[in-house]
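User: My instructor asked us to take a sequence, write out its structure as tokens, and then describe one feature of it. I'm not sure where to start. Here is the sequence I was given:
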Amino acid sequence: MNDITNQTIEKAANGDIDAFELIYRKCCSFVHNVAFRIVTTQDDAEEVTQEVFISVYRNLKNFRFNASFKTWIYRITINTAVNLSKKWDRNRRREVSFDESEMAVAGRSGTDASVEKQDQDAYIASLLNQLNEDQKVCLILRSIEGLSYAEIADVLNININTVRTRIKRGREKLLNFKKEVMNNEV
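Assistant: Let's start with the prediction itself. The structure tokens for your sequence are:
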């Protein structure tokens, strides 16, 4: 995604469909992965991805090169995923419990690696669902996407100390949840 040139962005902003398609191809999997970590279902991640690229298409002419293009796409993706997840009926989403994810793995077919990946994704989703949206987004950007605290602050347009606090509280909540689960298993 870092290899998208300013010229390509400018062409796409001026209506060049081929340039926009290049941006889409280079950013689509990145946007989908970030969205999936926030909304935790493939269908929802696909809807978020679609909305992100509609927004990018409509707003590309407003991109001023003050921040990196990657930061701009992150911001749109995070905002879209969080906003759409708040709109959707939370009752249609069910939290995946550890027992349910274990049963789902037992019923799946496929290679060991794909089953292991699906199991890991379900486990991560169940953990992330324990957090509020702010903590969840900060932890995803830090632990999964590998952004620095400064980059997260830039993407979310918040103070770096707010980022640190959200990550710290999110990690504490996850540790407490893990302790609680382990105590219930004993």
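For the description part of your assignment, you could build on this observation: Confidence is low (pLDDT under 50) at residues 93-108. Try explaining in your own words what that tells you about the chain.
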